[in-house]
Amino acid sequence: MSLNFASISPHPPIIIPGIGSNEDLHKVGGTITGLRKLANHFREAEIETLIVISPHTLTYPDRFNICGMKKLFGSFASFGAPDFMMEFNNDFDLAVEINSAADSHEINTLLYNNNGEFFEMDHGLMVPLYYISKIQETSLKILPIAFSNLDRYKHFTFGQVIGEIIKKYPSRVGVIASGDLSHRLIQGAPGGYSKIGIEFDKKIVADLKENKVQEILYYDEEFVEGAGECGYRSILILLGILDGLKIKPEVLSYEGPFGVGYLVANYKFPEDI
Fold this sequence. Notes:
single chain, alpha/beta, Protocatechuate 4,5-dioxygenase, Chain B
């Protein structure tokens, strides 16, 4: 079927009603509006399997973690909202195909299965899904993937491998790169303040909007480290997945009222351009 939906989403639990206060939700109104717009694109794409690349899924330094468990479960209990829960099926067949293809390209992966009944979802997965899908009672499958500490070129290449598998896969597939940008935008920000944070966010938002993939791949290492971000490597995998496709990026929203950059971006495919 090929790829039919691709996006970048932030994942702060504070944007979830019942976790964030009314005042908090007002401050991130632009992000919530952006995610609602993204949800409309998602519904129109009629996705059957959604790959979500999360910075907070179990990460290994030397390999990419692909969820190999058949059931997924998560709740916002650790954020004070125990009544809101999510449960999905994984697309195990797609997970196996990606793992096998990565191995043939000498990319280290782990098809993760801890022999438990459920894979425990993190907020990097659940926050985007809250707005994107509202899907607790539908048949949509979710495939969680984690990045690694391997170099950026391995991340891009891993994305290319995933993209090739998606082209041949018999379901309508979508991808979300979950990740926040700089955590250092203001005094009192979670990562402390650094002017690099503002510079990083301004640059990556502009480069993504103009689809400057090579520019993003070659960011100076100290520039990325200084930003204190958690979404760069998720984005690199997404850009690899999109490599060679005729797409048009659109930034739906960007803001950082709490000192962390929240970007919502959608990629239009040829039929939408």
